[in-house]
Amino acid sequence: MAKARRKRQTYTSGQRNSILAAARKEGLTALQVKRKFGVTPVTYYSWRKKKGLTRRRGTVGLVAGSSGNITRDVQSEVRARVRQMMPGIVRNEVSGYLKQLFGGRRGRTRRV
User: Fold this and answer.
1) pLDDT of 70
2) What is the pLDDT of residues 42-89, one digit of tens each?
C-alpha cells in the first residue's frame, strides 16, 4: 500500500513575515510554531536563516545588526571571530613550544 502524499502548503512572504514576527515576539520554539501555525520546524528554521534571524547556540539575542544595541552586536561578532581563530592560534603556539622543547634534540643522545 502506497503512502498518502501530503499537500504542500505555500506561504506568501507576508504570511512568513507575520509568523516569524509572532514567533519572535512570543519567544516560541520551533515545535510551538508548528502547533500554532502548522509550519514544520525545518521550514521555520529555513525562513529564519533566510531572514538573518538565526543565532548561535549559547548566545543571547539575535545576530549582529538586529538587536539595536551596537555595543552588544560588536562584542558578539568579536567573540564569534575569536572562537573561529582560537584553535589555529593554540595549535601554532603548542607546535612552537614543542619544537622549542624537543626540536633541537632529535637524533641526539643526552649526555650525562
Assistant:
1) 86
2) 999 999 988 887 766 555 554 444 556 788 888 888 988 988 999 999
Average pLDDT across the chain, whole number: 81
CA 87 – CA 23 distance, rounded (Å): 36
How does DSSP assign 25-75, residue by residue?
HHT--HHHHHHHH---HHHHHHHHHHHT----TT--S-STTSSS-HHHHHH
The secondary structure of residue 97, as a DSSP letter, is H
Cα distances from 37 to residues 18, 24, 31, 54, 104, in angstroms, run 11, 13, 10, 19, 67
Q: Where are the domains of the chain?
A: 11-54, 61-103
32-39 long-range contacts, Cβ below 8 Å, gap at least 24? 38/9, 39/9, 39/11
Signed CA dihedral, 85, 51, 42, 54: sign only:
positive
pTM metric for this prediction: 0.46
